[in-house]
User: Fold this.
Amino acid sequence: MVKEEVLSLYQDEVQTSVNVTAFMTGVTIFFTGLLITKFDSYDLSIKIPILFLLISTFGFLYSTLIYANASGEITRYNKGSRFNKNMNIGDSIGEYIGVYFLVLSIPLVINSITTDAFLRLATLIVSLMGLIVYHLSGFSIMERHYPKAHKIILLFIVILEVSLYLTQRTEYFVYISVIMILYLMTITFFSRNKYL
Assistant:
């Protein structure tokens, strides 16, 4: 009886994770599609935010697939089950590639599509403050994966985002974007390896 209750709780966790990441996949696809249909020609100031949204879409998509695979592990649950591994890898991909690229792309998109200085700056501040509060609240996946270094890792993400925002219409924008992509992919890879 106890084992059945535990398996039911695991199944509920998988279902919740699949629902959240599937919804977020839809959100990023919507924003990406909206942006693509609104612009006839693209300069780098809008191409990079669209790229971030596309990366975010794939992050949410693959984390949804991994969570769904965890469901199969529940039905075959035993001591050697890969359930925990699937859930942890899904969490890593969903947060670092899905959530982060979505949160970081929004100020860049707004910076590209409006000339309103208040709206542009407010979006950057709200985006970064939300990310910082999320981390400092103790709920972030990063704090679990990198308990001693998560604040430093976050600080570097904030610095890179501000740099992207400030250089969005310059030649340095592409270089900083590549650094951001590689940095978040590296964080994802090393957090993933903790569970292999």
About this structure: DSSP finds seven helices and no strands in the chain.
